[in-house]
Amino acid sequence: xxxxxxxxxxxxxxxxxxxxxxxxxxxxxxxxxxxxxxxxxxxxxxxxxxxxxxxxxxxxxxxxxxxxxxxxxxxxxxxxxxxxxxxxxxxxxxxxxxxxxxxxxxxxxxxxxxxxxxxxxxxxxxxxxxxxxxxxxxxxxxxxxxxxxxxxxxxxxxxxxxxxxxxxxxxxxxxxxxxxxxxxxxxxxxxxxxxxxxxxxxxxxxxxxxxxxxxxxxxxxxxxxxxxxxxxxxxxxxxxxxxxxxxxxxxxxxxxxxxxxxxxxxxxxxxxxxxxxxxxxxxxxxxxxxxxxxxxxxxxxxxxxxxxxxxxxxxxxxxxxxxxxxxxxxxxxxxxxxxxxxxxxxxxxxxxxxxxxxxxxxxxxxxxxxxxxxxxxxxxxxxxxxxxxxxxxxxxxxxxxxxxxxxxxxxxxxxxxxxxxxxxxxxxxxxxxxxxxxxxxxxxxxxxxxxxxxxxxxxxxxxxx
Length: 465
What we know:
The protein has 465 residues and is of the alpha+beta class. It has helices spanning 6-13, 16-21, 40-49, 70-76, 122-134, 170-178, 222-233, 243-246, 249-253, 270-275, 281-284, 321-325, 342-350, 450-455, and strands at 51-55, 61-66, 90-93, 106-112, 115-120, 140-144, 160-166, 190-195, 198-205, 212-218, 238-240, 287-288, 334-340, 372-373, 375-379, 382-393, 398-405, 414-419, 437-444.
């Protein structure tokens, strides 16, 4: 059977959970950027103590959307309000399925009248492209795809470089870089700065516990701009961050990057599944962890469960509105950080040196081994949620994970996370034979970083319910 679409793949597979839990796609790769420039411990320390340069030029889709109906397309597909959205601002864009479950998210930039760019992972970009093509909108869409994980000697080129300057010394770095006072740009607003005689677009943003700037421009100018940033930041301790370290900043700042996109079921979603290719993210992505159900819908999450409840505004019609209006937010799981017990982690690592009964390898600093991760969180004898993004913070000297758990489990209470997959593990290429181990963890705020909790704008990674 020649499979052309995701729908074909699912029909042929029989059980969607089994398909995704045994995916052969391999590890998720943050492409092109070197794994480490120094070492991941010092790179993590720098975003807490001095300043960092994040290179975001390669791992995300840039989807350019232009035309008279561009804003309508975005509004129709997002839980967010667009009432006060204007040129030179940005917002976190969150689309849902017809059933009110999250497809993904990303950052939406309002570049000019009728002109936007969405920056994020594939599922949300695919959802937008599908509706642009099939929904009768007067829009033009251009996709600049993420860089290949394995270029195999081929030249890599993007339309834009994209950098972030973050950390407590970010302002000093930016002022030295531009020769001017820090621009008065409000949070998630855009402006311009001058670097080496070039006018560079900038977004006021925060990803490492202290607000800084995200900047972008023509890809060919990227090396010159990068060199200028590092030169200006030398006296302020700036550290370039490698791809091995980059994703772990979210453990402290509280964003869950990769929930399973809620696209695999539902008659209303069938046209989208038939549009999606058989070799795309949704068809080949992997599902990992100790939580196992034969029903793929048990892996779906609502916006409330990911901390996006404050984003939901019923001031416009959007896909998923009817389902979300029926949900009582107080009944929903909420986003938290889990601080894993050091003694239990020591036992896990000791198992790697004690014969054949080893626990699942906990890679440092990022321990995820699937596209979407779902480890069972247990409390009082029952599963109360999922641990969804896991790693280690050298700043906190602690293994951390981002989770969504039942509201009855309060901050400060102890839960257990079951680490590893049942039955010795699935057939994923990232899974070695192992035994499951229970790790105690303390339910903690998200964001875990005090600076992030106290300085981020309300609703930007700060909501616990």
